[in-house]
Amino acid sequence: MNQIWVLDCTLRDGGYCNQWKFGKENILKIVSGLQDAGIQIIECGYLSGKWKETGDYSKFRTVREIDMLPGIKKGSALLVAMINYGEYREECLPLCSETVLDGIRVAFHKAYWKEALSFCRKVQEKGYMVFVQPMVSLNYTDGEFLELIHEVNRFEPYAFYIVDSFGSMNRQDLIRIFYLVDHNLSERTAIGYHAHNNMQLAFSNAQVLMERHIGREILVDSCVMGMGRGAGNLNTELLVEYLNDAGMGNYIISPLLNVIDEVVMPFYQKKPWGYSLPNYLSAKNNLHPNYATYLEEKSTLTVDSMNEIFQYMDEEKKNEFDREYIEELYLSHLSESENRQDKVSGFGKVIKGKTVLVIAPGKSSFVHKDKICRLLEKKDLVSIAVNHSYAAADTDYIFVSNQRRFRELDRGVHGKCIVTSNIGAGDVYLRTPYRELLNAHETVFDNSGLMLVRFLINLGAGEIWIAGMDGYSAVPEGNYAREQMEVHIQKEMIEKRNRGMHEVLMEYMKEIPVKFITETVLG
Question: Most buried one in 114, 228, 251, 508, CB count within 10 A?
């Protein structure tokens, strides 16, 4: 059976919720409550040479400030503090024997891991238990993580951590990284796990980790009531209750409940933490949660728009919060949105009340190209090709909702492309929200031709003529005018899609006249 140790970091990670201003009395209540509950390791807060405040905070300029806190003394629980690499000089640390602290946790970004490990060695030489914390562990490739572990083994710190900084790890990610660490890390070094709860997986992932029976010490980080920025952290009270029930602990719950009632709840009421869609999106896009908080506080964006901004972010900018960078992206998005609305409005005026010829890429669009070309000569007709550039003649516009089809287009036609918001391109005529054009039929909910019909209805077109929307055929070469577009579809799905397209078109025909000018199985 593993030896599971709980490391509570309420005073450090929870400090993001109140700028570490807990107050001396509350700090004492938290430490005392954790000790009474039987928590083995208590993190007292941050050590930072950049910090200016003193007194009521759990962020400290010197180790001496920690030593002077009331009720803080070496005893039943190990006491540790965290240093973000680069924020505190090693020479400012006294010898471990001269302070109440038993250990130092060193957190660092991937770009500085070599320098951070050198710092860890120096801290260890002063007698401290060293906890190596590579932030955003998912950002390392397996090879990079193995190289990091190899260097860690050279000095065998007390613990090496798997850190889910953005709460984006799923079960498979955690198990893969855990076994990578366990099979390569020195047996004399404990494995730690630090989780955030952006995707509501902190507790379940911790259980997965604790159930790995490997015979080495495992450390699991948590905070009372999950206190932490954004979505928060793993809850200490839930963690120890689970350990008690599983026969892996003998913790006393009531002191933790008292800490929640007397200390943590008032902070929660002032500034709540917990699951939210923006925090989910930050995890989904594997980026710093402050970006989600920043955009959420603007109160001007939909969740879709926020996700759209995240998808445009440079990879190297995701790990550390850059206020100027996200502000620029935000302003660019607003400017683009304004331009988009202007263009959509302008396009609406172009097609208002007019006949629109939709040319889908079905085989009939090639067979009847002469007929289609004659129609294209009509003056009051607006023509739009779907997901392709019509080879027989130029169309006024091209509608694209498929990223692959967009990549197949020549860049020279981008200027007349109407694309949905899932298409990442800035040189198009206009972009329109993807979700607004979907229908409710499962098999064809995102069919591009149907999405265009919905778009035209929304903007007030007078009538729609359709060419090349033949329906699907069991013979692959019978589906498309261009061989490169052929895809294999199972017979059962062909029938479902054709039936779905027919049903959706029947619904749309209640809103606008629709006429097929080439043969189709959908009529």
Answer: 228
Both tokens of 342, joined, read: 């202007």
**Statement to judge: residues 375 and 245 lie in one domain:** no
Q: 59-60 and 78-84 as β-strands: parallel, antiparallel, unpaired? A: unpaired
DSSP per-residue codes, 461-501: BSEEEEES-----SSGGGTBSSGGG-----HHHHHHHHHHH
Report the Cα 254 to chain-centroid distance in Å: 35
- In this structure, the answer to whether residues 436 and 288 fall within a common structural domain is no
* Residue 102 CB neighbours (<10 A): 18
DSSP 213-242: --SSEEEEEEBGGG--STT-B-BHHHHHHH
pLDDT digit string, tens, across residues 279-327: 888 888 888 988 988 888 777 777 777 888 888 788 888 988 999 998 8
Q: Give the Cα separation of 25 and 410 in Å (integer).
A: 68
Residue after which a domain boundary falls, among 336, 366, 381: 336
Backbone CA torsion sign across 183, 184, 189, 194: negative
* Nearest alpha carbon to residue 242 among 280, 190, 204, 268: 204
Neighbours of 509 (CB within 10 A): 13
Cβ(160)–Cβ(191) under 8 Å? yes
Check whether residue 94 and residue 226 sit in a common domain: yes
For 494, the domain range is 352-516
CATH number at residue 207: 3.20.20.70
From the number of C-beta atoms within 10 Å of its C-beta (0-12, 13-18, 19+), residue 149 rates as buried
Give the pLDDT confidence of 37-55 residue by residue, as tens digits. 999 999 999 999 999 888 8
Are residues 427 and 317 part of one domain? no
521: in domain: no
Residues 6+ away with beta carbon under 8 Å from 268:
17, 225, 227
Q: Which amino acid is at 317?
A: K
- What stretches in the chain show pLDDT beneath 50? 1, 480-484, 486
Hey, how many other C-beta atoms are within 10 angstroms of the C-beta on 139?
18
Contacts of 315 (CB under 8 A, 6+ apart): none
200-259 per-position pLDDT tens digit: 999 999 999 998 867 889 999 999 999 998 899 999 999 999 999 999 999 999 999 999
